[in-house]
Design brief:
Elements: E1 8-11, H1 20-30, E2 37-40, H2 53-64, E3 69-73, H3 81-92, E4 97-100, H4 103-111, E5 116-118, H5 127-136, E6 138-142, H6 149-158, E7 163-176, H7 181-185, E8 204-207, E9 213-218, E10 221-229, H8 234-240, E11 244-247, H9 254-265, H10 271-282, E12 286-287
Parallel strand pairs: 1-2, 1-11, 2-3, 3-4, 4-5, 5-6, 6-7, 7-11, 10-12
Antiparallel strand pairs: 7-10, 8-9, 9-10
Helix pairs in contact: 3-4, 9-10
């Protein structure tokens, strides 16, 4: 097991569709924060091309100049030759590690003998798959969001020499589809969606008939409505051998979200107090059901009580 005395903060890729200048401004701000790793790139939809691959590479160089590790995240669902061309450009560049979010990315990286990060979208649910990814060149893996604590601990123990990262904060990326749900919401076709996702910087909320927030629609991606938080379990994560705690970007309150996580992970603030403030940043109740082997939408009691 890889031992360390503190969880390293990582910033996941932006999962939403933002304007180019908003993305550039965001990463300029994030480069000043104390992230060990910043992930960059379009992972959700091939139509979201506010930044081309060359733009991402230039932006990555700027962020890396501040001393932070930059990882380029690949797209999850590849549906065309143009998608493959963008993936090949990521694989062929030599400056930054790649987060593989599709088996096509794994294949290309393995063929070139390039170490990579096995992304959460690869759905690694057991020790055998984790060991396979390691044999193909994965040097770090992002745990599947549905993994309960005890199951994750078993997998880390089975492959102890591979760094593990958990999705610790943000709306959970639950599923991907060839259909675009945002376009459907506006009675538009996917290929003529009018880029409606730009109007929903943190996704489009979906409610049940009883008006309960249920999911978030984000183009072809389905996300949780509630904000997932594992901050109260940071000591448990560290004891299990988790190395990286991922924060997923959101449009509002990012500076405050980062500050609260930094203070708790440095034992400078009580997690319960931080979670109270984070629920305001999230705009609603926090969720953590998957960690306890329950439905992800559940708000287990410990979500508001820090514990080892």
């Amino acid at each position: 097991m890889i031992q360390q005395d503190k969880l390293a903060l990582s910033l996941g890729p932006i999962l939403f569709f933002w304007q180019k200048q908003q993305i550039v401004d965001f990463y300029q701000q994030m480069a000043e924060e104390s992230f060990a790793t910043i992930y960059m790139g379009e992972t959700v939809c091939s139509r979201r091309q506010e930044l081309k691959v060359a733009d991402w590479l230039d932006l990555a160089q700027d962020v890396a100049a501040n001393g932070c590790e930059v990882v380029l995240s690949s797209q999850v669902l590849l549906e065309s030759e143009s998608d493959l061309r963008r993936l090949r450009k990521l694989v062929e560049q030599e400056d930054f590690r790649v987060e593989a979010n599709d088996l096509a990315a794994v294949r290309l990286l393995h063929a070139k003998g390039i170490p990579f990060v096995a992304g959460q979208a690869l759905n690694i649910y057991n020790e055998q798959t984790l060991a396979l990814m390691q044999s193909l060149g994965a040097c770090r893996w992002v745990a599947s969001i549905e993994l309960a604590a005890d199951r994750l601990a078993q997998m880390i123990a089975a492959v102890p020499d591979m760094a593990c990262e958990v999705f610790g904060w943000g709306k959970l990326p639950l599923a991907y589809s060839s259909r675009c749900f945002t376009a459907r919401h506006y009675n538009l076709k996917k290929d003529s969606c009018e880029f409606k996702c730009l109007e929903h910087a943190d996704g489009l909320p979906l409610y049940t008939r009883e008006k309960q927030a249920f999911l978030t629609i984000n183009g072809i991606q389905t996300m949780s409505a509630g904000c997932h938080s594992l901050l109260a379990r940071y000591r448990q994560l560290l004891a299990m051998g988790v190395g990286y705690f991922r924060i997923s970007p959101q449009e509002q309150c990012m500076a405050e979200v980062i500050r609260l996580h930094e203070q708790v992970l440095a034992d400078a603030m009580d997690a319960e107090a931080a979670l109270s403030e984070l629920s305001v940043c999230a705009g609603g109740a926090l969720v953590n059901g998957y960690w306890y082997g329950q439905a992800g939408i559940n708000q287990c009691e410990e979500v508001m009580h820090a514990g080892a």
